[in-house]
Amino acid sequence: MRRSLALALSLLGLFDSLYLLYSYTSPSRPMVCIGTGCDAVRASAYSSMWGVSMPVFGVLGYTLLAIVIIAESLFSATLARWVRQAVLGMTGLGFLFSLYLEYLQAFAIHAFCAWCVTSGVAMTALFALAIVNLVRSGPEPEPAAQLIRVRSLFAVCVAGVLVGVSAFYLLARHSQLAPAAPQATPASLVERLVRPGSYETGNPRAPLTVVEFGDFECPVCGRGEAAAREVRTQYARQIRFVFRQFPLERIHPFAEKAAEASECAGEQGKFWEMIDKIYSRQFDLSIEGLERDAAELGLDQPRFNQCLTRGAMAGRVRQDVEDGRALGVRATPTFFSGQKRIEGVMTTAQFSQLVAGQLADLGVTMAGNVEPAATPAAAAPQKPTTNPAATRTPLQESAATTQPTPSPRRAGTDAGPASTGLQGAASGESIAGWQGAAPGGPFAGFQTAGGACSEADAAKKQPALIDTQELRQLLTGNAGLLFVDVRPASDYAAGRIPGAITLPADEIDGRWSTLPKDRTIILYESGRSSADICAASRAVGRTLLEHGFPFSQVKVYQDGLVGWEGSGIGSHR
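Below the sequence we write its predicted structure tokens.
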């Protein structure tokens, strides 16, 4: 029985290592992450040793263990004892190596990969069984008993292969790149775009609804939040603005909890205030940081902490993600305005131009708190002349004069059924709030100001993460390092690593060619918290790797400016 269990554990470890090897050596496919740290571990400098991918050692070790465990049942008692001692030595070394890997995840990478932890648990159990098997070894079994033992091991192997192949097939299918984003149908817009529990602000009976799917850890979303906030203020009487959660966990492991935190704050009436807090402190999305934000907003702290730690809002976040996928969302930020889906960050002028143009198409007069200059005349697209009296529905007529209600507010709680602004879509009727630009219309060529954080980013090759100790080693005898500060220019001006150049993350698409390919590039941010996993630096690193920069020469310094200043490295250079 102990041998069968040991063989099963060896096969489990082998399967685990094979999948890790498949994921590590197939950057074109995203990794199926159980938990939040898989990509961070894979992207770290510890994902390989002596130039060999770490899972290779697992594959070799578990394969050898499985062979030796089977061989033990075929040998005589004397030889079997030597084999048991060999198994004890092998599993002992594996156990110590697993402890070392767990130490690295905890204190160097600051993230845990569930696949790696599973391998460590399997090796620990194998080590314990090896000790018991050596201490309790009995006399040489009779031939009949030995045959039964061999058959049992054979059955375990067959079962392991069948289960392993099936599981690997399912994981490989799940790892495939997401298909092209589908076009949202009127029926899907009605059903999924705005849920009764979605948080909204502005005019609940507005003729135009704007919905954002965002990720709080996405640096692009952070850059675009100022424009979104400005538009929410400028057009508070003309539009209804709804926020939906879309955390990209494969590349932003802290985004899920940040999304839950905003929902927990919303339960206490501070959803939009929490959004502002989170975006202003994207460098720290740890549980402690989110709890600090809640305290500064004056929330009921025990209630908020309980909501966050128990995952009370996880289901709501998952619902938003499912709705987003069904509507074709594949990146953040993604906006739905009218029947137009816009992917990527917009400037305030672009956002205002889009909203003003669609309101004009709906026959809504700019009034109230909107300044005429909000839409640059020179940039405004040409639109056909419309007769407002002929095109405005009774709902739109009342919306033009309705005052906005205070925020936050959940959709469907103030204006009754009409507050969704999507009636009639399924039957093909005119949709109040969704008569905006159709495909090929005046906004068909609308361009955003910047990129977006996408699910496809998880499939790209990730730059290596290094800590301060590894940076020290790189600096030893290496005068060719180039530090690149990816923060906004204002942050760079306030303080930086000596000799660093500035290249803000949102400018990388136009300036990547200015960086040399013959030097080791160290990308860094502030490093102001343990929860800063360098989302902007990693995004810049992915761009450089896509443009042919050598993987060995693109590093992300995860301890950032704070780590540099606290290390004393600069004083010894």
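Residues 77-109 form the longest helix (33 residues).
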